[in-house]
Amino acid sequence: GENVEQHPSTLSVQEGDSAVIKCTYSxxxxxYFPWYKQELGKGPQLIIDIRSNVGEKKDQRIAVTLNxxxxxxxxxxxxxxxxxxxxxxxxxxxxxxxxLTFGQGTILTVHP
Amino acid sequence: xxxxxxxxxxxxxxxxxxKSIKCEQNLGHDTMYWYKQDSKKFLKIMFSYNNKExxxxxxxxxxxxxxxxxxxxxxxxxxxxxxxxxxxxxxxxxxxxxxxxxxxxxxxxLTVT
Lengths: 112, 113
Description:
The structure holds two protein chains of two kinds. By secondary structure, chain A is an all-beta fold. Helix content of chain A is 0%, strand content 56%. In chain B, a hairpin with a 2-residue loop joins strand 7 (64-70) and strand 8 (73-78). Chain B is globular. The termini of chain B are far apart.
């Protein structure tokens, strides 16, 4: 089955810096790659996603890039703010109805 | 006007008991899911229903039994609870089974003592 590796497990940045989280996947048939943000005590919230027919997608301060050949995708957050502090998860899907395989999560801390 | 809601939010019970968690979505979605998040925050899918039909059934002990009375509701019943069942259980929904966005509920923290 699909396996998703996510790095780093923790990331600490100063407010205003950029943050990058990387994920690799194993199944070349996967074609949908969402990113979720989970704040303390809440459920994961979809923040951006990308499909395999697109190499990059941007939404204000966040962007995702996909390299299908290398089977990796990344989340980029620019001009980080303290409210960006949360756990971020990548996921991969497309090989089985509705099934998403999640990465291990990255704890992002943005220091004011 | 909560999109995906779960009850209860917290559940503390003893080993061997049977308990249920309920989930409802008001988004008009066809597909609903149950996920388990362990103490290390790892999220893993357990079940998925599409229009009341089970479409994903991961390797989960048969003490866990999902039920979908209609496409807006998905419940999770757990028999003979064990210490290892302690986790946060999330319900989610998506418009269809074909990888559209999944919307998560707030979670139910289950503690088995």
